[in-house]
């Protein structure tokens, strides 16, 4: 493997990270918080480490990454930023425990949003800003990953399954993919600022607006408020619902939309399915909670819609503790954790398109049962999905279930009750954040066993990087020769 | 569709069923029970209905079944025997409610073993015999299904996935498949009698030995005793463990074994995996329950082994209420419900070979990630599994999960708690019988909502007939033209 270049990349990433970290100092100055020095030291450690790695390796650099290098680089980029990202928490004392700080940072960069913090509002705002910023950086990372690092454009023109990622030469990226990445970043940043503006029009402070905009567009879910978005006006909640939905869409579709290609957007099968699921489950949940009584129709629909969109997009914001709803309602919510957002979005999880392909494959199978000699093929958005791709999709689903199962067993063995075990694993693998059992939206992950926190951090990483990118590092195949 | 021939087949099946039913009268006479008349009437209704269907259709019969006819015939054979099979319960008053009687009979013929009966020992022995007999008949039906009706011999010489069942002409079956079916029936019957003999050598009565032999070899799980096998000696329990394990094996392997082809048996990948899972989970459970204290090593191992074999083979016998074990132990037991026995056995569920293929497919996928141009293929027992077959396997897994999910949602909507909902659906789709929550081995299904019982009966049928055989009847594709 080309470790020289890999280290060089890590160096560049850390320099970028250090610069981002510096911005949190602004808030320490604005709010007159006594953590300026600690944040400065954090940034400098990160910057100096990054610069060191860069300077050590920039000479005689062969800018080429093989397949193995790519998988390794992607996984360890997230690991390394998660380690340096703990510095602001640890040095300011906002989170004294190393395991907790790693958990919170991994949760940030993977845009999961699980938190070990109980009283957010007692923390320095600069640290809370850093916390939300990790989400936003993570979201940018995912966009570059989907567009540039896993660039095989298969179904509907996007690399859906990311399985057969061909050899990536770093130079090759420059002309087309880099410009696409920039466009999609442009959309990401623009939507963030539009959302911020809309939140400011509501009753939100500048600080809260910025934080929530970061968490929404990255489908992260950290809030600087103890009550998440529960304490805000219905206007704010509707705005956040809309932008969570947008963040869960394929960003290419936003691009097409901006370019006026409306038919291409509205005919997209994944988008239609995603919208359909949101509508169907919202109606189901709204009916259940309305029939419980005590709330009006508008509130029932708003609460249901907010939670459904929040969970399917894997954002994980809460306006209401869904676990206090009737069991039928939160069971539906829990099942959404296995649906996930659209491919090419900042959301995590299994993703809608995989469900669509699985379902279409079942239909094809029925058709083959009746007409064994037919040569019917699977088509999605006009492109053929061959059996090999379906096989790859299976691998993903099987690995997802296997990881979910093993994760749940481990959590049970660590002493968590079944619902908490299953809920925490589903919520963290899926990048959602709040789960069920004792890790619901009204609770935190503070009480989870230390080993459990490490397991969940690992699951966040696996889920965020589409499983195989990380898991392949644990195969003997990867390390042979 | 050739309804004339289908009706003719149903006629024959009902005549056979009526004859089986007659044998329960023997026990009414032996034990001097006042249900002879009712059992006689039940048998006669069945015999006359069968004869009527046969006589109506036997002239000018075109003995040919298309694909649609086959799927329809298989599904409705189970439906029809389940309807006529309720007569002994209903007419003797042993089970007064029609829904309960249908549930118990479907549970019998699908070899599931879920029961709505609470006090078995208060019922006439002749009725209990009929109950166990439904298992045994169901097991025979499954063998003929696997060997003759779904005869595409693909992986390792057996029709593993049953997906592309080619057109079946009834005559075609006669020469080879019918003789194979007879051989496997021979093994099934022989093993049943050997087991009966071994149980008689223990402290078991002739009646109990026969009933338990029926339930064991069919992996059914009905017992005529309230305490299932809990009240018997450890000798009896070990014998039952061995024969449950044998019943969960591919019956072709028994045939090879009898023919002295030992290498073929012991090198079989599915058998090795099946054995490996049993050993691994038994050790895990034994350690957990031994550490709880209060029992010796032998008892811990025996209880663990009994439960593990009982659940993985989908028999569902109990010597102990596993729900009273620590949560870690019964979580493992619950997960076994998704493993299932071997293909070609009388057991139900997903089946070990499907897990093996899924897992191998993941390995292949990793290999393709590293070597995108390799032409490596999936091989099981020396035979290539192509991508299309993997695609079919996916359909099965996706349908299994989908059915499980929808089933669980329905059970939750019917008011069951989450564990009971999930447990009852898993246990009945998987053909296991006892689940978790309020339908554990120490409870029954008596308290489940009436609609829930119908849903679970339907799930037993779907699970037993490998999902697609039943579900294809609900596609528009099946009914078009
Ligand atoms: K999230
Ligand atoms: K069973």
TrEMBL record, chains A, B:
<keyword id="KW-1003">Cell membrane</keyword>
<dbReference type="Pfam" id="PF02386">
    <property type="entry name" value="TrkH"/>
</dbReference>
<keyword id="KW-0997">Cell inner membrane</keyword>
<dbReference type="InterPro" id="IPR003445">
    <property type="entry name" value="Cat_transpt"/>
</dbReference>
<feature type="transmembrane region" description="Helical">
    <location>
        <begin position="235"/>
        <end position="253"/>
    </location>
</feature>
<feature type="transmembrane region" description="Helical">
    <location>
        <begin position="133"/>
        <end position="153"/>
    </location>
</feature>
<feature type="transmembrane region" description="Helical">
    <location>
        <begin position="273"/>
        <end position="290"/>
    </location>
</feature>
<protein>
    <submittedName>
        <fullName>Potassium uptake protein TrkH</fullName>
    </submittedName>
</protein>
<feature type="binding site">
    <location>
        <position position="314"/>
    </location>
    <ligand>
        <name>K(+)</name>
    </ligand>
</feature>
<feature type="binding site">
    <location>
        <position position="315"/>
    </location>
    <ligand>
        <name>K(+)</name>
    </ligand>
</feature>
<keyword id="KW-0633">Potassium transport</keyword>
<keyword id="KW-0812">Transmembrane</keyword>
<keyword id="KW-1133">Transmembrane helix</keyword>
<feature type="transmembrane region" description="Helical">
    <location>
        <begin position="5"/>
        <end position="27"/>
    </location>
</feature>
<keyword id="KW-0813">Transport</keyword>
<feature type="transmembrane region" description="Helical">
    <location>
        <begin position="70"/>
        <end position="91"/>
    </location>
</feature>
<feature type="binding site">
    <location>
        <position position="112"/>
    </location>
    <ligand>
        <name>K(+)</name>
    </ligand>
</feature>
<feature type="transmembrane region" description="Helical">
    <location>
        <begin position="39"/>
        <end position="58"/>
    </location>
</feature>
<dbReference type="InterPro" id="IPR004772">
    <property type="entry name" value="TrkH"/>
</dbReference>
<dbReference type="GO" id="GO:0015379">
    <property type="term" value="F:potassium:chloride symporter activity"/>
</dbReference>
<keyword id="KW-0630">Potassium</keyword>
<keyword id="KW-0406">Ion transport</keyword>
<feature type="transmembrane region" description="Helical">
    <location>
        <begin position="329"/>
        <end position="350"/>
    </location>
</feature>
<feature type="transmembrane region" description="Helical">
    <location>
        <begin position="454"/>
        <end position="479"/>
    </location>
</feature>
<keyword id="KW-0472">Membrane</keyword>
<keyword id="KW-0479">Metal-binding</keyword>
<feature type="binding site">
    <location>
        <position position="432"/>
    </location>
    <ligand>
        <name>K(+)</name>
    </ligand>
</feature>
<dbReference type="GO" id="GO:0005886">
    <property type="term" value="C:plasma membrane"/>
</dbReference>
<feature type="binding site">
    <location>
        <position position="220"/>
    </location>
    <ligand>
        <name>K(+)</name>
    </ligand>
</feature>
<comment type="similarity">
    <text>Belongs to the TrkH potassium transport family.</text>
</comment>
<feature type="transmembrane region" description="Helical">
    <location>
        <begin position="185"/>
        <end position="207"/>
    </location>
</feature>
<feature type="binding site">
    <location>
        <position position="111"/>
    </location>
    <ligand>
        <name>K(+)</name>
    </ligand>
</feature>
<feature type="transmembrane region" description="Helical">
    <location>
        <begin position="393"/>
        <end position="414"/>
    </location>
</feature>
<dbReference type="GO" id="GO:0046872">
    <property type="term" value="F:metal ion binding"/>
</dbReference>
């Amino acid at each position: 493997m080309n470790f020289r270049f890999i280290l060089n990349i890590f160096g560049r990433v850390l320099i970028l990270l250090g610069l981002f970290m510096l911005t949190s100092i602004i808030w320490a100055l604005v709010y007159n918080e006594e953590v300026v020095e600690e944040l400065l030291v954090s940034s400098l450690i990160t910057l100096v480490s990054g610069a060191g790695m860069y300077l050590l390796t920039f000479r005689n650099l062969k800018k080429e990454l093989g397949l193995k290098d790519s998988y390794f680089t992607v996984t360890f980029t997230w690991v390394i930023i998660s380690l340096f990202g703990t510095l602001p928490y640890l040095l300011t004392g906002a989170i004294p425990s190393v395991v907790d700080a790693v958990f919170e940072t991994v949760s940030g960069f993977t845009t999961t949003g699980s938190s070990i913090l109980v009283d957010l509002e007692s923390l320095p705002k600069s640290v809370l800003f850093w916390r939300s910023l990790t989400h936003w950086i993570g979201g940018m990372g995912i966009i570059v990953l989907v567009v540039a690092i896993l660039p095989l454009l298969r179904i509907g023109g996007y690399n859906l399954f990311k399985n057969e990622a061909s050899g990536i030469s770093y130079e090759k990226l420059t002309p087309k993919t880099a410009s696409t990445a920039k466009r999609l970043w442009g959309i990401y940043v623009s939507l963030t600022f539009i959302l911020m503006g809309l939140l400011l029009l509501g009753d939100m402070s500048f600080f809260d607006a910025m934080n929530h905009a970061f968490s929404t567009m990255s489908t992260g879910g950290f809030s600087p408020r103890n009550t998440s978005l529960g304490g805000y006006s219905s206007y704010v909640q509707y705005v956040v619902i809309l932008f969570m939905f947008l963040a869960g869409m394929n960003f290419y579709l936003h691009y097409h939309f901006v370019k006026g290609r409306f038919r291409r957007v509205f005919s997209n099968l994944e988008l239609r399915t995603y919208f359909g699921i949101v509508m169907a489950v919202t109606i189901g949940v709204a009916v259940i909670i309305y029939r419980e009584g005590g709330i009006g129709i508008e509130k029932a629909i708003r609460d249901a819609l907010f939670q459904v969109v929040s969970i399917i997009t894997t954002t994980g914001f809460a306006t209401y503790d869904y676990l206090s709803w009737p069991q039928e309602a939160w069971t539906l919510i829990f099942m959404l954790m296995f649906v996930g957002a659209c491919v090419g979005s900042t959301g995590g999880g299994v993703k809608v398109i995989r469900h669509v392909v699985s379902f279409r494959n079942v239909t094809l199978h029925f058709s083959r049962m009746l007409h064994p000699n037919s040569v019917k093929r699977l088509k999605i958005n006009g492109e053929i999905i061959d059996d090999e791709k379906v096989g790859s999709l299976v691998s993903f689903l099987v690995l997802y279930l296997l990881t979910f199962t093993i994760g749940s067993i481990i959590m049970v063995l660590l002493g968590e009750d079944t619902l908490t075990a299953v809920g925490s694993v589903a919520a963290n693998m899926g990048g959602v954040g709040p789960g069920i059992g004792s890790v619901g939206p009204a609770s935190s992950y503070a009480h989870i066993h230390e080993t459990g926190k490490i397991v969940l951090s690992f699951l966040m990483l696996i889920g965020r990087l589409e499983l195989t990118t990380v898991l392949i590092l644990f195969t003997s195949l990867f390390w042979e020769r």
